[in-house]
Structures are given as C-alpha cells and as structure tokens.
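Incident review: delayed structure delivery

Summary: a single-chain prediction request sat in the queue longer than the usual turnaround. Root cause was a stuck worker, restarted by the on-call engineer. No data loss occurred. The affected request and its eventual output are reproduced below so the record is complete for anyone auditing the incident later.

Affected input:
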Amino acid sequence: MTNVWKDQVIAAGVGGYNDWKSTSLAKQVDTIIHEKLYQQSNQNDNFEAALSQVMKMRQFLSSPNNILGSERTKHGEIAEHLEVNIRNAWAALRGQSEVATFQGVGRTAPEDFILNGIKYQSKFINGTNNTLSHVLEHFGKYQNTSMNYSIPKDQFQVIEAIRNGQIPEGLSEKSARAILSKVEKIELTSGRPFNEMVEPSIANYDEVQLGKISETISKSQDDLVSENQKIQDTIENDSDEKIKTVEAKSGPSISEGAKVVGTAAAIGVTIKAVTSIYSKVKSGKRIENFDADDWKEVGLDSAVAGGKAGLAAASIYTLTNLTTLSAPFAGAVTSAAMGITSLLTDQQSGRIDMDEFVTQGQILCLEAGIAAIGGAIGQMLIPVPIIGSIIGTVTANLVWGLAKGKLGSKEEELKAKLNAYTDSLLVKIDQAYQDIIEKIEKQYKRFDSLIEAAFDLQANAATLAAASVSLAREVGVDEKKILKNDADLDAYFLT
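Output delivered after worker restart:
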C-alpha cells in the first residue's frame, strides 16, 4: 500500500517537474533567440560601418585631380588610402575599432599613414628591385628605425621566394641576386630583420593603378559581403545548435529521473504521514474518530499544521514550486481507481464482504482525500478534531464515485452503507462547527464588554485605566508594555 502512495507522489512530482521544465526550457529558447537577434543586429551595424569605409575610398577616387602625382604615379597615394580604408573596413566588420589612420600625418610627411600605432611609409614602385631601392633611399634620408615600410603584396612574395632559395618564373638569376643583395643591405643599414621592417600591403602593384582600382575596390567589397554572410550564418547556426541542445533536454533522461526521485524523497513526510494513518486504520480505529493525540502522532497538530507539508501532496508541491493541488489529487485518484477495481473483483468473487470493501476502499482513497483538503488543513480552515470526519466524508464519496455502476445488485447495499456512514460524520461535523461558533461568539461577547468598559466616557479615570489594562491583557499585549499607573505613563513619555 505504501508503495502505491509513493508511486503516486512521484508521478505527481514528475508532472509538476515537467511543467516547470517546459517553462524553463521555453525561457531558455526565448533567451537564445533574443541573443541571436541582438548579434544579428549588431553584425548588421558592423557591416554598415565596413561599407562606410569602402565609401570613403570611393569618395577619395571620385576626385582624381586631387590625388598627388602624375597619371603614372597617382597609384602611390591610392595605395595608401586603400591600405587605410580597407583595413579599417575589415576591422569594422569584426566589430573592432579603426586600426589605421591618416590623423596627425602630414600629406608630405616622412610617413604615409599609421597602422596599429606604428608609422608606415608606402612604396609602390614598378619592379621589386626598384621598390627595395626606394626603401633604402628613404631610410637613408630619415634614419628612422621605428618606421615600417609597406610594399606591394606580390613583390613581397617574390622576395620571400628568393630568400627561401626559389627563383620565381620569369625572373633571372641576376635579378634575384640583386634583390637578395638589397634585402641584406636593408638589414645591415637599419639593424632590423627585413620581415620586421618591411611588410606586404593588402594589394598587388597592378591592383592600385588608376585603370584597375575600381575593380579592386569592388572585389574588396564583395569579399566583405561574403565574409559578413559567413558571420551571419555562424550566428544562425550557433543559435540553432543551442536550441537543439535545449530541446533535447525536453525528453526523458536518467539524470532527470534522478532529480524527480530526489524530489519525491524530499516529500517523504507525506508518505510517512499517510502510512501512519493507514496503520491506525488497519488497527481498528476509524479515521473520523482520530483525536488530537492521534493527529499529533501522524505529524499534524495546531502548532505545525500551517508550517509543515505533512499530509497534503498539494501543499508539498506548492512549497517546492512543482505543481498545484490538481496533480497529486489526480495521481491519488488514479491510484485509488486501480485499487477499487481490484477490490470490486474480490467483493464480487466473495473474498471480501461489503463492510470490508468499504473499509479497504476508504483506505485506498485516503491519499486523495487528504490531498483534496490539504490546502485547507495548511491554512487551519478545518479544526483538528474534525479533520478525520472531513477526510472520511471525502473518501466515502470517492469510493462511491469509483464503484458506482460496477456492483450490479449489490450497489444499493453499498449506497446504503455509505449514506449511513456519511450521515453520521455530518452530524459530528455539524456539532463540532456549532461548538466552534459558540466559542467564537462567547469570545466576541467578552471582547465587546471589555472594549465597552475601556472606552466608556462616563466612567471615572481609575475605572477606565483598569478596563484598558484588562483589554490589553486579553488581546495578548506583553505585560511589560502595558501602562498600569502614572509611573508607567511618565516613564513611557519621558524616556
């Protein structure tokens, strides 16, 4: 029997836990979606900032007459702006601040731009050997060991190949030796490793020419668009994976089963209480006849009824934020229905008589009865002496509801027994409530007389003071706080 109750409490706990889990998972999914939308919006802002850098480059090119140099040498300043604007565009796309700037750089200053806090001179000369010659010449003029040099990307690759012992196709050994010699001279003159002093630009030599630069910018913009789409796809995919992970938790698992069992263990007080009631009933004492001492043994008296979830599965699950009255009540009724079905079989086969059927049926419905009135017990709406009668009435009604229509000719016998039993309980309940009401009325009458005496304006001061003291004591005011005489009054106002 205890196992049936335990199973039903766990079943109710599972239902409550699943409700809580569904709400929790829905909140997690909502958070993931909001995070995705925020990231997508933020990335849209990054993309717009990147395109604004590309627009700066186009605006610079829209006035070719303002670009330094002749038609053959304008590509030098074009390369500088491409380096600054496109590098900043890529930084913006990744949500970073600008990495390159012309701010603080004169148009004819030794440096052309500043990248990551370092001054750079851009050298875009036709021919790798010629570019290195210009680097040597510039360094010889300014002797600035903190300045770096930016050269065409394709020329830097040629230099790297030669330094690694490879001669690029179309380049003679003589030219390769001349280039290698310039590299060694740069290192010797500056005292710095070549790769630290000279770095590749983001563009090849031909890509910054007047006839090619528009195509170069368009390609850079296409690359930005493509990369932005990859970032957005990553945000979308990461969000989808997170949602899948959360949704996967919605199914049953061993770990969650353990959590529910742990919750059921936490409400062992309920099972213990019901088991205690069951034992008393089995020993021959009817539940409607339980006195205060019996309920105290069970774990419920006037001092703990409101503070402990002793008897009602509903109260327990409310306190643990799992569910409401309906879930444990439904679980208990389900368990009772299965038990009643078994008792019906026993009764119809003659293994038990009608009295035993009623008694055993009430025991099976006991938990449902307790659950049904559990909230009222917790709030002390039902006096302890008649709890048993209330539960007895509920269980009797449950037995009838579950057995009705299944006993055939013996149904009238069952109905008569249950009616007689219920009527006797109602008499006890009615009498108990009448007694309680009489006590309440008597207490109110006493309070009325005390209040009337304490505020009787026709009485003298001494009588009023005495009546006020009596009223204060009656309503439970601390004796130390009651002002009984002039000395107490002076002490109250002067301290």
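Verification: The beta strands are 100-101, 113-115, 118-122, 148-151, 198-200.
Action items: add queue-age alerting; document worker restart procedure.
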